């Protein structure tokens, strides 16, 4: 039985750090170490991650500038940064506006992650209140957007809500869906795009697929899903081919493992991104603006 079959994939800031099985580590070595490092990228100042196809990594706390410089020898060119949330697991001593500016100048793309309230049917201490799910989703989006502004992340960057593994009843599903829909709606009002992270073994993915075309549901613009099989692809049998397509997906294809680049060893998760920055139009004709968007809201296509 594989690791995926017995343990749901969990992002590192909301879980105990565990060693991946030896076979998975060998798979990572085969999949990544043999690749030559990509050419140095020019500085980037647009929305994150923006239009990007390639490898990314995330680690609990943002590495130092020196570590990031060493990892320019790696095949990775995107990095996950944990910008906030009541369930964020690590202090972020390096994650400042200056750090973001420095790493953008080096060509790194970011996929910003927000570890907020979790499903009410989990054992997390900080969980969604089903009676306040919409309000809490909006509050989380406001907090994430404010943090993104403070870090200097460009408008229309995609902020990814981390929803960890859950299995529950219809009431639990409804609470998560209400929270996630409010998160997306509020981020659009604040001028950012919405993402959602879940795993293929969680009700989170099943519920997002079920809600995809539901009237009134504001689905995330980007799907970030986990299947720790070592395969660098965004296709998956659990996701209908036309959903979050084209180029609206990223996959966490390997969990906790160590890699060393430029003499620097870091414990990471590995991700494959296949994204294109979506076009958008300003809905409504009102000229009064709030948070940089028209009062009629923002429509992403």
Structural overview:
The chain has helices spanning 3-6, 22-33, 65-70, 97-105, 133-151, 170-189, 203-211, and strands at residues 52-58, 76-84, 109-114, 158-162, 193-199, 222-226, 248-261, 264-275, 280-282, 289-290, 293-294, 298-300. The chain has 301 residues and is α/β, with parallel strands linked by helices. The strands form three sheets. The protein has an eight-stranded mixed beta barrel, surrounded by four helices. Strands 9-12 form a two-stranded antiparallel sheet. A two-stranded antiparallel ribbon has the order 10-11. Strand 2 (76-84), helix 4 (97-105) and strand 3 form a beta-alpha-beta unit. Helix 5 (133-151) packs parallel to helix 6. The longest helix has 20 residues, at 170-189. The chain starts with a helix and ends with a strand.
């Amino acid at each position: 039985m594989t690791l995926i079959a017995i343990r749901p994939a969990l992002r590192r800031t909301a879980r105990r750090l565990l060693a991946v099985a030896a076979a998975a580590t060998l798979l990572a070595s085969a999949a990544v170490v043999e690749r030559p490092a990509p050419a140095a990228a020019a500085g980037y100042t647009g929305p994150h991650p923006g239009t990007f196809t390639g490898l990314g990594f995330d680690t609990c706390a943002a590495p130092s500038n020196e570590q990031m410089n060493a990892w320019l020898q790696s095949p990775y060119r995107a990095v996950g940064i944990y910008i906030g949330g009541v369930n964020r697991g690590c202090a972020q001593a390096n994650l400042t506006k200056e750090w973001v500016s420095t790493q953008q100048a080096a060509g790194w793309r970011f996929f910003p992650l927000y570890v907020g309230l979790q499903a009410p049917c989990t054992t997390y201490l900080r969980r969604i209140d089903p009676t306040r799910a919409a309000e809490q989703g909006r509050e989380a989006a406001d907090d994430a957007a404010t943090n993104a502004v403070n870090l200097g992340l460009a408008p229309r960057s995609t902020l990814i809500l981390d929803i960890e593994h859950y299995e529950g009843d219809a009431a639990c599903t409804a609470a998560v869906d209400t929270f996630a829909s409010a998160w997306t709606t509020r981020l659009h009002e604040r001028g950012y795009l919405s993402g959602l992270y879940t795993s293929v073994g969680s009700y989170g993915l099943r519920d997002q697929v079920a809600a995809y075309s539901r009237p009134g549901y504001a689905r995330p613009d980007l799907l970030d899903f986990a299947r720790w099989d070592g395969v660098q692809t965004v296709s998956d049998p659990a996701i209908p081919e036309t959903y979050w397509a084209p180029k609206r997906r990223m996959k966490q294809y390997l969990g906790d493992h160590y890699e060393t680049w430029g003499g620097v060893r870091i414990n990471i998760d590995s991700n494959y991104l296949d994204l294109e920055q979506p076009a958008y139009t300003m809905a409504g004709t009102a000229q009064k603006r709030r948070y940089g968007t028209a009062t009629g809201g923002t429509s992403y296509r």
